[in-house]
Design goal:
By secondary structure, the chain is mainly alpha-helical. The chain is built from 2 helices and 2 strands, in the order ββαα. α1 runs antiparallel to α2.
Length: about 100
């Protein structure tokens, strides 16, 4: 599965997290389509009107989990990079002296 977040190296210690600009619009359209699809059985079988929105709400929770996982992955990569830099700094200090 492709993440909508990208980790871009900048100059020095700067790291930029770029998001796809249409991400929110994509999620909203998918949510509305899912509600529409779930409305069909509700209309045919006369179920409660809240069922399509509850079912589509599960999709929103899944998207939230995806974003959370992507940010966790980026934080892990950032922490690894910072740890490597901190380990290299004492070596640099000894070389300068």
């Amino acid at each position: 599965m492709r993440s909508h977040l990208q980790w871009m190296h900048g100059r020095g210690e700067r790291v930029v997290v770029r998001r796809n600009h249409t991400y929110a619009a994509e999620v909203l359209v998918k949510f509305l389509v899912l509600v529409g699809l779930l409305c069909m059985p509700v209309l045919v079988f006369h179920w409660g009107a809240w069922i399509p929105f509850a079912g589509a709400g599960v999709y929103l929770l899944w998207e939230l989990h995806r974003v959370h996982s992507a940010l966790g992955e980026l934080a892990g990569l950032w922490n690894e990079q910072q740890q490597q830099r901190q380990q290299q700094e004492p070596v640099r200090d000894k070389a300068i002296r």
